[in-house]
Amino acid sequence: MTNPALNIVPFVSVDNMMTLVLRVGVERFLVELAGYIEEDFKRWPVFDKTPRVASHSREGVIELMPTSDGQLYGFKYVNGHPSNTRDGRQTVTAFGVLADVGNGYPMLLTEMTILTALRTAATSAVAAKYLAPKNADTMAIIGNGAQSEFQALAFKAVLGVDKLRLFDIDASASRKAASNLAGKGFDITICHSAQEAVEGAQIITTVTADKQYATILTDNMVGNGVHINAVGGDCPGKTELHRDILLRSDIFVEYPPQTRIEGEIQQLDPDHPVIELWQVMTGETQGRRDPRQITLFDSVGFAIEDFSALRYVRDRLQSTGLYEKLDLLADPDEPRDLFGMLLRHAAKQAEVA
Fold it and tell me: Is 234 a catalytic residue?
């Protein structure tokens, strides 16, 4: 986005992000965002890649997620604090920046709490496009919190999944998800256990929030031929799947150095074989190769996905007016005279007084 005033950076507030998503349409937004994510995965080698910079505490984690393709630089600030809901706060909040590598100036500042939910769901659907059984139409979603509806809509929009089996240890969360998704083309069953939820499902999505080692799926619950979309295990000490499931599965990841620290595979030996998802998308290796194969997308979220989301929003913002002009950067008339800018401002204030 072009700004004649160098000090002004477009800022997308939560209100404007919601308006943008609804104006585009949630499912269309997810499909288009999935396209940007797939496009960037297919040029994976051009990106700077590093595990996110994390500050862990007993209560949660705060992370920075940077990357660049050599022309644009993007980063996201994000937290994960599972106990926040007790105080009426979100478990995950985020904001992000997209900048011009050539001059270092920010081009976009945006909320990314809603955008992260959308990009996480879109990434899951893109992975399943390559890994899920052909013509899969039924998905179990275990954990029906803030991410669940986005996952459901992404899988419907990208893959045509229209049957949902919901389970959460808090039954009100499942009722919430079912109510929010009513009238959106789903056949929804609220289940009373995780075991019941996975019955008949070709895709199993686990997306719980507890910050601990957990066993959401046990080995006996997972039959041959399913695709597991493991979303909730995303930091050290936080997993959802029994180790034996991993040993039976072909495991696909975003960026191994990060996933081995944060993902389900933190339970395995450091040299346990995994497949990088971008290599499947480019045709360098196979994804699903036979009907009985168990595929597992060990999703932890990687900075390139946020970069894709920032690019998509930047492109979508043009001509919409759905942003505020944020006076973010000092822009003196003479670039070397920053102190003089301060003095001129003092003089103006004196005149007003």
Answer: yes
> What confidence tens digit (pLDDT) does each residue in 62-88 have?
999 999 999 999 999 999 888 898 999
Q: Which pTM value belongs to this model? A: 0.94
Number of domains in the chain: 2
Q: What is the pLDDT of residues 155-213, one digit of tens each?
A: 999 999 999 999 999 999 999 999 999 999 999 999 999 999 999 999 999 999 766 77
Q: Is residue 223 part of a domain?
A: yes
Task: Please tell me whether residues 345 and 257 are part of one structural domain.
Answer: no
Q: Which domain holds residue 80?
A: 8-114+305-352
Model confidence over 304-348: pLDDT tens digits? 999 999 999 999 998 899 999 999 999 888 889 999 999 999 999
3-state secondary structure the chain: CCCCCCCEEEEECHHHHHHHHHHHCHHHHHHHHHHHHHHHHCCHHHCCCCCCEEEECCCCEEEEEEEECCCEEEEEEEEECHHHHHHCCCCCCEEEEEEECCCCCEEEEEECHHHHHHHHHHHHHHHHHHHCCCCCCEEEEECCCCCHHHHHHHHHHHHCCCEEEEECCCHHHHHHHHHHHCCCCCEEEECCCHHHHHCCCCEEEECCCCCCEEEEECHHHCCCCCEEEECCCCECCEEEECHHHHHHCEEEECCHHHHHHHCHHHHCCCCCCCEEHHHHHCCCCCCCCCCCCCEEEECCCCHHHHHHHHHHHHHHHCCCCCCEEEECCCCCCCCCCHHHHHHHHHHHHHHHC
Whether residue 210 is found in the same domain as residue 223:
yes
Q: Which of 15, 168, 170, 234 is catalytic?
A: 234
